[in-house]
Predict the 3D structure of the following.
Amino acid sequence: AQHVVVDAGANSKALVVLRHVGTAVLAQNIEFSVADGANLTVVSLQEWTDDSVHASSQQAKLGRDATFKHVLVSLGGDLVRVTPSTRFTAPGGDVEMYGLTFVDDGQHLESRLFVDHSVPRCRSRVNYKSALQGENAHGVWV
């Protein structure tokens, strides 16, 4: 199991790349805290070997006028489930969430995303795509 916390301080700008490679059985929780006026871009790459299992919860919390971009690319693994979510805590937040999976025969690659719009004057853009190759390829996005 793995727990990672990324704090983007007030008015900061950063790019974080999470590259998952090799063979693993991994349960993962990643928290992104994007403070007021901060701009954080995260690229999460799943390039596992064919026998890997990966379950990852990737949660972002955005402050006032914060900007967050999350790019999820899943290309490998036997079973990979990534659940990116964003929660606004103050007005003016902006999130973009993009996902791409390329699923081969016998793989199950899944994205379960959520954006909590409980705060006024916040904006989100979400776009996820999957390509399947093989009779037993399973690509899921919810």
